[in-house]
Design goal:
This is Chalcone synthase. This protein has 249 residues and is an alpha/beta fold. α6 crosses α7.
Length: 249
């Protein structure tokens, strides 16, 4: 596929903010068609892998032919030296840098995006995000995140399955964003007797939490490992947002 065939570029990031946007930078660097739409998505956090894919799929459904989706997270830029708060120490240990790219088209040999669903929880804005300080962006990473997953993921999944018209037993692979060991354990508890796919655990073990990039890495590895059938991508991030994407591998 040539650069001329890309008619929209979506760039997802949370680890920084620039103007002109990263979507503009990608379009110029790749010499895309000057009429290609540029869609910068900032602030989704870890949910950005699923929600970015959903927004790209919406563009295709709206008539765009080939949408380039780029996720880029430079989490280590935001490690605050001298900040010994628990949130900062955990963030330094857990979060890592990463980038991914995919083209979403109406036709092609890759996975099919079937449906998506999003749940925004009220009164949870302070669980994850950034504080702007004189020294930079200070991470907000509340210890209550696994508890929020246990409390709200069941209802979000139930509504998503109703929207999708499928049952949990029809899902062959649960591919959640690997937000951390406690988060994956909480997801396992919610989806039991089903289990989180090994690709999520392996991505966490080998790459850490790359924010919006991680679920793209999980999806890539599932494809490389020969996974087939209905699969559910789930990711959670600031807001508190819970996103689900039903795909057929």
């Amino acid at each position: 596929m040539s650069a001329e065939e890309i008619d929209a570029v979506v760039v997802v990031t949370t680890s920084g903010f620039v103007t002109p946007s990263l979507a503009v930078a990608v379009a110029l660097d790749l010499n895309l068609n000057p009429e290609a739409a540029q869609v910068p998505l900032v602030g989704y956090g870890c949910a950005g892998g699923v929600l970015g894919l959903a927004r790209a799929a919406e563009l295709v459904n709206a008539g765009y032919r080939n949408v380039l989706l780029v996720n880029v997270e430079l989490c280590t830029l935001n490690a605050l030296h001298g900040d010994d708060t628990k949130s900062n120490v955990v963030a330094i240990a857990l979060f890592s840098d990463g980038a991914s790219a995919a083209v979403i088209s109406r036709d092609g040999p890759g996975p099919r995006v079937l449906h998506h669903h999003n749940t925004l929880l009220h009164d949870t804005e302070n669980i994850m995000g950034w504080n702007t300080t004189d020294d930079g962006l200070q991470v907000i990473f509340d210890v209550a995140v696994p508890d929020v997953v246990l409390a709200h993921l069941p209802g979000s999944l139930e509504r998503a399955f109703q929207t999708f018209g499928v049952t949990p037993d029809e899902i062959q692979h649960f591919l959640p964003h690997p937000g951390g060991v406690k988060v994956l354990n909480a997801i396992n508890e919610v989806i039991a007797p089903h289990q989180v796919a090994p690709e999520s655990w392996e991505t966490l073990r080998t790459k850490g939490n790359m924010s919006s990039v991680s679920v793209m890495a999980v999806l890539h590895d599932a494809i490389e490992n020969g996974k087939h059938g209905l699969s559910l991508l789930t990711a959670m991030g600031p807001g508190f947002n819970i996103g689900h994407l039903l795909v057929k591998l």
